[in-house]
Amino acid sequence: MKKSTTGLLIGSALVVGLSGCASSASQSSGQSSASSDRSWYQHPAVCGLAGGVIGGSIGYATSGSSDETNGSATGAAAGAAIGGLLCADRTPEPVVPQCPSYGEVPAGVAVDAEGCPLDSDGDGVPDYRDQCPGTPAGVAVNANGCPLDSDNDGVPDYRDQCPNTPAGVEVNALGCPDSVVLQEVNFEFDSAQLTSNARSVLNGVAERLVNNPNVRVSIEGHTDSRGSDEYNKNLSQERAQSVAAYLASRGVASNRMRAVGYGEERPIASNETEEGRFQNRRVELDEWN
């Protein structure tokens, strides 16, 4: 049998075998993304070696007697490259969601330039799932996008002046069962000048009132029984007004507040002890209907 015929027969047989490997490799790639799951004969290096043999055989068979070496080398190089390409892993890269933190986004949902669902109030819950759109910036929300209500009294935490109301207790619009004593809202001795600590406490009160714009409040000043009734009445009025003025400076509309001084008329403890007198010197916040 002539050299050319022998080479072509060997080459043809190897081509058929390589095609089968490549086809098998392609099917495996479609079924599994892990190249380690492929058979050894489907590896690109093995296919490249087989392709080199095929190409070398064809090059040898088709070259003249004087050019067998160059023909074999050229064919082997070309065959190796083609064999490697035929068995290359064609497994498609997994599609990475544009906005993985939201998972599967339903069709038709409005998205931003990055492909993420719109979140108009910036609370971390996309509009299409947000049951409380328009939540103020920075307010903690639940999975439905609604402000947290830790004591489940119907008044969200960011508006609740009494955030730890016992379960089942009826509350007013401030989130309190009744008027609430503004703890640590104290004044300089025998004056209506707020202490620095009192101003710090009132900052939180003001923030919650600003976030609860439909509620009006009564600010009520009280004293102990030392001093004359008239003096105590005037001092408690001035202290209530001082609190109202400070809340106004923090953004609470003045027409939402009234200041009332009760003096020593409404004690909550005995005026016979220092502890009792301390409790009676207080400012209370109540809903003003």
UniProtKB/TrEMBL annotation:
GO molecular function, one term: calcium ion binding
Subcellular location(s) of the protein: Cell outer membrane
OmpA-like domain location: 174-289
Keyword Metal-binding attributed: no
One cellular component (GO) term of this entry: cell outer membrane
Main location: membrane
Superkingdom of source: Bacteria
Position of the signal peptide: 1-24
A biological-process GO annotation: cell adhesion
The protein's name: OmpA-like domain-containing protein
Provenance organism: Halovibrio variabilis
